[in-house]
Amino acid sequence: MNLYYFASPATFYPLAGKLVPWFALLAAALCAVGLYISFFVAPTDFQQGEGYRIIFIHVPAAWMSMFIYVVMAFWSAIGLAWNTRLSFVMARALAPTGAMFTFVALWTGAFWGKPMWGAWWVWDARLTSELILLFLYVGYMALQAAIDDPRRADRAGALLNLVGVINIPIIYFSVKWWNTLHQGSSVSLTRAPSMAMIMLWGMLIMALAAWMYTIAVSLARARTLILERERQTEWARLQLEGQA
Amino acid sequence: MIRFLITVIRRDVLLAARRRGDWLTAQFFFVMVVSMFPLGIGPEPTMLRLIGPGVVWVAALLACLLSLGRLFADDFRDGSLEQMLLSPYPNSLLALGKALAHWVINGIPLLLIAPVLGIQFGLPAEALLILVLSLAIGTPILSLLGGIGAALTLGLRGGGVLITLLILPLYVPVLIFGAGAVEGAMSGTGSEAHLSLLGAFLVMSLLVAPWISSLALKISVE
Questions:
Q1: Using an 8 Å Cβ cutoff, are A195 and A52 in contact?
Q2: Which end of chain B, N or C, is more open, meaning fewer C-beta atoms within 10 Å of its C-beta?
Q3: Which chain A residues are within 8 Å of B152, Cβ to Cβ?
Q4: pTM here?
């Protein structure tokens, strides 16, 4: 079985169609378990009270917002290097979900900031760079929407995507480089986490749920993008007629 | 190679000198935007002194974006851009020359106007010096990075607004360190660190931005 077999839109389309329900199911199940842990199992934090529970949404959303941008940059780089149509489709399909997670991270962060810091928003390094990430997503989608020729839209978007990826390490390390209000990371691969084990589990399961959700949604979006672009081909016409 | 670069710069500067209305618009835009702030906020001198550096810097970004739309557009419309891209010299050299010409036409006048506007905001003399210095290092970065946006949005409808969406996020570090240098000089914490970081940005964008712009030009023109 050759992996490149699925690099063609005609073979990828049915594969994605088969995968979407599984990832959606996985996302729903993980989300249910994660929410149960975060609301009923995880204990109340002795410093932050019940308000800390927002991290079960906030941290996974923030992780995904950065991760999706890097994945998009990966597909963009592959697309520019090997001129594969499907990579551009994947990058494009991921963008709205990434923007959504960035917005959720900022929004839930504001909910957390009000009781903990006493302010909805502060111009802290990490908050500002996350806001810039949202602007980068918006710019990418605006550029895609403004160009009619899909070939040019793909390549121009990919280039912008790769330029913007410089921002990701800045967000990630901002709490280390600048000593700011946003707290440092409580989770690390190299040392024991500075939080209760069960809280960590809740957060990781929610992050996995967000990940599976991203895969399901972006595959579904990629399918419609493929159909739109390949509508003049024989197999796409058959697909469309079969659905009608 | 150097001769090609100089020719590109000379051509653009000459064209701008013959059509004075075009580039003067951006300069007056700069002056007007800065003058709106005291009218909107109120003429309180201590407040104005605090916001002065930031206001001048933000207005400089906007004025730069305003003129960027035409960086490649005129040459693209009459077809001369394609001819230039076909020249035997590297395309990044063309993009570098265009960006430098943009800086000579739009950046240097900003440097000359900025101290006058700074005086209106009651900035002390040493802060004015740092303001000009930070703009001198910062505005070439604006032209270089802006070239990427101008190349990507070449010939698109609504390109002027789009370029703002694409490029403003990339201008953020320049704004922070540029305005930060002036504030550092005023508050006594010093501005050397900010200016050095700006210099590092300038070197980085000199190396990378023309290359990316040339790739973007190729995507847009083909």
A1: no
A2: N
A3: 143, 156, 159-160
A4: 0.88
